[in-house]
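Input for the complex:
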Amino acid sequence: MSNITIKELALELNLSAATVSRALSDSYEISAATKQRVWDLAKKLNYEPNPSASTLRSHKSKTLAVIIPEIANNFFSQAINGIEEVSRQHGYHVLIYQTHDNSETEAAFIKSLLSGRVDGVLISVSSETNNKDHINSLDKNIPVVFFDRTLEDIAAVKITTNDYESAYIATEHLIERGCKKIGFLFALNNLSTGKSRLSGYTDALASNNITYDKNQVITCDKNESQNHSRIKKLLAKNKPDGIISSIEELVLPCYAICEELNISIPDDLKIISFSNLKTAPFLNPSLTTITQPAFEIGITAATLLLKLLNKKQVDTDEIVVLKSTLIKRASTGC
Amino acid sequence: MSNITIKELALELNLSAATVSRALSDSYEISAATKQRVWDLAKKLNYEPNPSASTLRSHKSKTLAVIIPEIANNFFSQAINGIEEVSRQHGYHVLIYQTHDNSETEAAFIKSLLSGRVDGVLISVSSETNNKDHINSLDKNIPVVFFDRTLEDIAAVKITTNDYESAYIATEHLIERGCKKIGFLFALNNLSTGKSRLSGYTDALASNNITYDKNQVITCDKNESQNHSRIKKLLAKNKPDGIISSIEELVLPCYAICEELNISIPDDLKIISFSNLKTAPFLNPSLTTITQPAFEIGITAATLLLKLLNKKQVDTDEIVVLKSTLIKRASTGC
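Predicted:
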């Protein structure tokens, strides 16, 4: 807490607290000379208004919240950099909350935000989100923009990438490289993000006359050791010759398991992952990725949120779809 | 903002707003039956107290701020996980702010925090921090714990690692692996963290009768392209046979430059880095690291901050030093 109060300023200046308060808020009721005296002393003594009090008055915190599953994920850290870029230009602070994909944590954050701590929210929802009540209450009460990990049946401003098309292209890339038995590491299965990626994969198989084999698809969640054993079982028993990892977090376990099982990448198994990993070009072998335009997603999401805050005309169920890029590297024999 | 106000609850229950307010705060002045009626309706209508108002009353936000240079750094994301672990157990929210090593951004965050938004602060200071006024004002006004990147001449609770000893061990490891011309990528040069790492390196050279060559030390900051050209010049002209990277961010540029200049790791150049990179074992070649106990640092820092908040006995200039680990991998020929 700042030590200097309005009362103390008033005492020092021989003015009433009400006069000091009005001077600080640049009221027309106070003379220019008095305002200057107040401002000079406030500056000298490093006076800081109490934000709780001033929030009550202005109903503005000049703060945005970003709610994401994990900060230890290059996609999200880059998206946040984009969000901060726009926010800084408009004088907003950015608070970051991570849910660790836990929908209870997510609900608790949202409950605390609903009561006026921030002016707007950017959210990439928890993949554990089954109960959507807290997301709905957020959307009804405060300006919100969804990015990347979104829900299907909620009408809101959403920024996503072309998940279906990207998975389709990834699958065709593996087929072109000679793969015939392509495994799919399915994650985010509660979210449209995850479902679109799975559809892109199955449709690309069908278009290329490859029969869909449900045993080549394994569902992963945030249980790391369970994911590890499921991937290991897939690679050991079903012996796919290609793998699509639908999230970044599953690709390092793949590399570790290949080492363990003496599977050579890309000779025995070609791997491609949705990923913004900075180390992708330096892995052994370098990793072919579907890279999302994370920074641009952040820029776009924050720009739309600020428009909502400033009551500018925004289609409140606008969906912006940005394009990901296939970057071919050694893990698919390129 | 929640739509339900105390006034509306009062109207619905045919009580005065003051009675509802007292009932909500469990006042002894209100009968148990009335309190129950108020609580039942508040729950039914999803009433949320305004946090600005309740902050003003209680002077507690039940929120901690973590100020760090970058979230896209595995050390910091793991440390935050530790901080969140402890905070969650004690019912605190954690807000994350990133400064991007910009001391103006850091000062602006601190100014906004000083006015009562949070109960306590955990900070790893910006390496650009020359002017320490804002850090001093933080320390005087709100409970604060410094972790990892700290300032020398401020008496406060600090959690660090054995930076001097770690750099000493790293240097001796390179000498044992046959290196005679060891380069040092010097970062955080304004902070005790960076200075200790440099001293560990120079002292280890001296103990092993290797003359210190100032041309083998290059100073890096947050200017990525400048760092890249400095490292390239070092590798091309001074041809070190070993490199110690004092921060994680400089090691991928090293790998890229070695590829560019056809320098083989570890044959021509052995590399070791201070790093918590998850991908370190999967790089080509796998990277020898000095790995800091990031999660434990977070746990320890948050535990000490909560003690400060609860006015428990804490030595207010306590310095806790945790130990880093040398993990030997292929980049140093192991």
